[in-house]
Design brief:
Blueprint: H1 2-34, E1 40-44, H2 50-59, E2 63-67, H3 75-81, E3 85-88, H4 90-96, E4 99-102, H5 109-120, E5 124-127, H6 133-136, H7 138-146, H8 148-156, E6 160-163, H9 170-175, E7 185-190, H10 193-206, E8 209-214, H11 235-242
Parallel strand pairs: 1-2, 1-4, 2-3, 4-5, 5-6, 7-8
Antiparallel strand pairs: 6-7
Helix pairs in contact: 1-10, 4-5, 5-8, 7-8
Length: 246
């Protein structure tokens, strides 16, 4: 009898602990979406786009790991940004980030997927990539034909992809963050509602205005070569250009 009671108590304790952990996880995710939690962000490719966003996010209070093929070259930037910034390899960035920004020339996307699939699996991945045939070769033409989001998912595997930050020129990203008046808008698309909410928060933290376009299939409306690509538009102008309701 005592043995059965002990077994029952163990089951109850285990169930209680499981529920508590689940509650903590849900609470943490809710905090992130609500803008209450500091995020760990891994940046694969800290060039003009990745490095600039890393700087904006560190200033907003997030922890950032900047990476490239030559991480030693990023140390001056990390030193300038302070203790919330560090440098490492692309693999370390993929492992570090709760959110990962993949900001490399589009021709490198297949290699990123092959090298870091395990580290990226199940994570929110922000994709600002734009395929250009003159730089990336024939794979760019195929990616443009099927839609960049579709191609990115094929290359990166089981990630929670958000198309983000692909339309804004690097100079606008650096110089127009947190500007007075109407902010520059960033179109976002994802099949994952929670990933979309986190991305929208990071757009705001970087100093811009998110415009939620819809599922990934809709992101073809702001791919390279469209009327809204490569322009610093306000949210009102961007919605008009995409044919969205104001």
């Amino acid at each position: 009898m005592m043995s059965r009671r002990r077994d029952l108590l163990r089951v109850v304790a285990s169930a209680t602990a499981t529920a508590a952990v689940a509650g903590l996880l849900l609470g943490a995710l809710g905090d992130v979406a609500a803008g209450q939690a500091r995020l760990k962000i891994g940046i694969i490719g800290a060039g003009r786009i990745g490095g600039t966003l890393g700087e904006h996010w560190v200033k907003a209070g997030h922890e950032v790991l900047l990476s490239s093929r030559h991480p030693e070259r990023l140390k001056p930037l990390a030193d300038r940004l302070g203790p919330r910034a560090r440098v490492g390899t692309p693999r370390e960035a993929a492992a570090f980030g709760e959110v990962v920004l993949v900001s490399v020339p589009y021709g490198a996307f297949p290699q990123v997927g092959r090298d870091h699939a395990d580290e990226l699996r199940g994570k929110i991945v922000l994709d600002p990539g734009n395929p250009f045939a003159q730089r990336d070769g024939p794979m760019a033409e195929e990616a443009r034909r099927k839609g960049t989001a579709t191609a990115s998912l094929e290359y990166l595997g089981s990630v929670r992809l958000v198309r983000a930050f692909n339309t804004i020129p690097a100079s606008v990203l650096r110089n127009e963050a947190h500007r007075a008046g109407e902010r520059i808008a960033v179109p976002l698309a994802s099949d994952d509602e929670q990933a979309l909410e986190v991305a929208a928060r990071l757009v705001r933290d970087a100093g811009f205005e998110p415009v939620l376009v819809g599922p990934l299939a809709r992101s073809i409306a702001f791919d390279a070569g469209t009327a809204v690509f490569g322009r610093g538009l306000t949210a009102r102008e961007l919605r008009r250009g995409l044919g969205l309701e104001p």
